[in-house]
Amino acid sequence: MDVPAKQNPPHSAQPAGIARPSRSRRARHSQELHGGHDRDCEWLAAYCQRPALLEQDRLNSEARRAAAAAAAVAQLGEAVTEAGVTIAAGFPDGTARVSVRGEILALPDGWERTLAKAARVVVTIDSAGGDAAVAFRMARELWDHPASVAVVGRLAGSAACFLLQGARRRLARPGARLLVHAPSTLLAGTARTLAQAARELEADTRKLTVWLALRCRRPVRETWNWLRKGDRVFDAEEALRAGLTDEVTDADPLK
């Protein structure tokens, strides 16, 4: 009896019931994949060669930070739209007037010169916060001035509240609100970059905890709890009782 020769199945045999893609379909799919890869490479090359796109990314990042500050203000029922730290020209009666509105991003031009020349410095604050490092530097230098006054109009949030603590005399208008929380940041990077940022944030949190404890004459444990439990909002009277301000008044700070 003749035995049929054993035949090996083809290498690309398909399970029963599943149609094998045609050669033209496989070729088209491969072209789509490679074509998409080529388009990605072209886009990346164009992106790296166009500084305008990088600049737009920077502006978008600043817009997101400004939006976050605006959201914090909106939560408190306030509306602070002007931005920046400005110094009024001239020192009438030897008094320098500094306005802090919107987001604190950088030291104002002439800040150190103002502190050196003015007999008295009055800082008005309506801000949801900003760069903690900038605010803390301003607070330290404001504290070194023997006749510094800070007045909270409607809001001193986050970094702005820390700036307030640098004034020798801290005032708040009736209806003002103060907000404190631990420093935070928005950052993307390698594990080493993120670990370094975490160490810096921890150091800033400890520094601000002690700063608040000294200025408010409160136990460090209490001010630590203020920072670590997220946003802590004080109205004007609560801030006075907590030691965040020295007086709640509508009076002219120059008197």
Structure description:
This protein has 255 residues and is of the alpha/beta class. It folds into two domains: 23-75; 80-248, 2-enoyl-CoA Hydratase, Chain A, domain 1. The protein has helices at 23-48, 51-75, 111-117, 132-143, 159-164, 191-216, 220-228, 236-242, and strands at residues 84-87, 95-104, 120-130, 148-157, 169-172, 177-180, 232-235, 247-248. Strand 3 (120-130), helix 4 and strand 4 (148-157) form a beta-alpha-beta unit. It is globular. The relative contact order is 0.09.
Which features characterize this protein?
8-stranded mixed β-sheet
SSE topology:
Elements lengths: L22 H26 L2 H25 L8 E4 L7 E10 L6 H7 L2 E11 L1 H12 L4 E10 L1 H6 L4 E4 L4 E4 L10 H26 L3 H9 L3 E4 H7 L4 E2 L7
Parallel strand pairs: 2-3, 3-4, 4-5, 4-6, 5-8
Antiparallel strand pairs: 1-2, 6-7
Helix pairs in contact: 6-7
Radius of gyration: 30 Å
Residue windows where pLDDT falls under 50 for at least 5 positions: 9-15, 76-82
Task: Give the C-level CATH assignment of the largest domain.
Answer: Alpha Beta
Proportion in β-strands: 15-25%
Number of domains: 2
Q: How many β strands by DSSP?
A: 8
CATH level 3 topology of the largest domain = 2-enoyl-CoA Hydratase, Chain A, domain 1
